[in-house]
Write a structure and sequence with these properties.
CATH topology of the largest domain: TIM Barrel
Number of helices: 15
Radius of gyration: 23 Å
Largest sheet: 9 strands, mixed
Helix content: 25-40%
Structural class: alpha/beta
Distance between the termini: 55 Å
CATH superfamily of the largest domain: Metal-dependent hydrolases
Number of strands: 22
Bound molecules: zinc ion
CATH class of the largest domain: Alpha Beta
Length: about 475
């Protein structure tokens, strides 16, 4: 009797599931979800851009992809991607990324950025409101089109007057109204910003219920102005204002002191502050040679010399004469800076507080290889990060960070029923980054399928032409100031 009852129960509940026709079924893959810790062979049914079912039972779909032997994971979310053109989006896709957001600094014009991307983006996109751009505008020297960083001048080096401060806040408010996800603060690029200016902009972020993403004020070991002091400054501003804080690329900002910087983040979190951070798996960083980072004293501040700076396109290492020539030029040349050690990086990456973000820029291999490199180097070769933890660092943790300002992120970074069908299907035995400093634009290999919002973008390892499934991730908008 009992068995019969169970039989009927099964018929009632499994009947509709079996009859359901999905748009797409990923069949027999190793489904891994870092939130529920599901790690099992399952079939994934996708309908209307959403994951509709995850089942051990067969599912029927208009298209069925055989995922056996492959990992089916949430598409990676890059919180820190500067290059937003199609060439870089393509590289990100082959690296398993389904959302790549410009949050460190942000674009100068949010509405223009979102309009240009709509219907033309391979993967999901979004931006912060740029403190650097708002400051340049308030000083009467708006950033030229296509640029996110100013060259050295009053807008980078002078303190703001009360009128300039008001203009900056007005601009940032407008940019948040237009859908920015956060305020992005490039403090290392605007050394003239006073401590109080920084705190006031954190207060603005708190009042708008958005986080601050920041490249902190300075790097290196020397006091005053050490990396430790800079991290302390923004943790202080977060504590004073209540705004959530994300410190970008702790590996390059804090370099050899990165583990000490991370201990400050850990301490702040232990005291209840909402502070997070990220790293990318390369020992060299990249920035423009005529930015304020290279103002006099940089050797002492950064603990590096001319030879540690390289021009990526030629591999040329700089001398004093060459540096002086390039630094004085008005052309914003990007250079690679070897400032960290493999030993520090290898201790940093496995730490549970570290999420992975690429700081992707054309000319540095991190643009193309960051995510595959974590899987190839730290999961497969060194074995210092479990596959599930790597997926957590690359999908769930960034989604949780985004949830501070966009509820839509609750449906990202997860392979669960009801989640957006942003999915990477890869071979954990072969996935490998191939980009190098000499050849930074070589795509990673090992991603067999990439699905963005239910649409297949990479199919059997090849990108489909003419498919632009990327959507915007938007902040809380104009009403955020009045929400309680
Ligand atoms: Zn930066």
């Amino acid at each position: 009797m009992r068995r019969l009852f169970l039989f009927f129960l099964l018929l009632i509940f499994s009947g509709p599931v079996l009859a359901q026709q999905y748009d797409l079924v990923l069949q027999g893959g190793r489904v891994m979800d870092p939130e529920t810790n599901l790690d099992a062979v399952r079939n994934v049914g996708i309908k209307g851009g959403t994951i509709a079912a995850i089942s051990a039972q067969p599912l029927h779909g208009r298209r069925v992809i055989d995922a056996s032997g492959l990992v089916v994971a949430p598409g990676f979310i890059d919180l820190h991607q500067h290059a937003q053109d199609l060439a870089s989006q393509r590289l990100k896709a082959f690296d398993g990324v389904t959302s790549a957001l410009e949050l460190e600094i942000g674009v100068p014009d949010v509405a223009q950025f979102l309009k240009a991307k709509q219907g033309h983006s391979l993967i999901n996109y979004g931006t912060s409101a740029s403190q650097v751009a708002a400051r340049s505008l308030a000083f009467g020297t708006p950033l030229p089109a296509g640029s996110i960083l100013p060259t050295i001048g009053p807008a980078t080096n002078d303190a703001a007057t009360p009128e300039q401060m008001a203009a900056m806040e007005k601009r940032l408010n407008q940019q948040l109204d237009e859908g920015a996800l956060a305020i992005g603060m490039g403090l290392g690029y605007t050394p003239g910003a006073t401590r109080l200016e920084v705190i006031d902009l954190f207060r603005l972020a708190a009042s708008r219920r958005v986080p601050v993403y920041t490249h902190v004020r300075s790097s290196g070991h020397l006091e005053p102005g050490s990396a430790i002091e800079s991290v302390e400054e923004v943790i202080g501003a977060a504590a004073i204002s209540g705004a959530p804080l994300h410190i970008v690329h702790i590996n390059s900002t804090c370099a050899l002191d990165a583990l000490d910087c991370l201990s400050l983040v850990a301490g702040a979190r232990a005291r209840g502050l909402d502070v997070t951070t990220e790293a990318y798996p390369y020992i060299a960083g990249m920035t423009t040679i005529n930015s304020a980072i290279f103002s006099p004293g940089w050797q002492q501040r950064l603990g590096i010399s001319y030879h540690d700076i390289m021009i990526p396109s030629t591999g040329e290492r700089l001398t004093k004469a060459r540096f002086d020539e390039l630094h004085a030029s008005s052309k914003p040349l990007f250079v690679v800076i070897f400032g960290n050690s493999q030993e520090v990086l290898d201790k940093l990456i496995p730490n549970p507080l570290i999420m992975i973000a690429s700081d992707g820029l054309e000319g540095h291999p991190r643009d193309a290889g960051t995510y595959s490199r974590i899987l190839a180097e730290y999961v497969r070769a060194k074995g210092t990060v479990t596959l599930m933890d790597a997926l957590r660092k690359m999908s769930l943790m960034p989604a949780e960070m985004l949830q501070r300002s966009t509820p839509a992120a609750r449906r990202k970074g997860r392979v669960q029923p009801g989640a957006d069908a942003d999915i990477v299907v890869f071979d954990p035995k072969t996935i490998t980054d191939r980009a190098t400093y000499a050849h930074p634009m070589v795509p990673s290999t090992g991603v067999h399928y990439l699905i963005v919002g239910g649409t297949v973008l990479i199919d059997q390892g090849k990108m489909l032409p003419g498919v632009f499934p990327g959507h915007a991730l938007l902040g809380p908008g104009p009403w955020s100031a009045y929400e309680h």
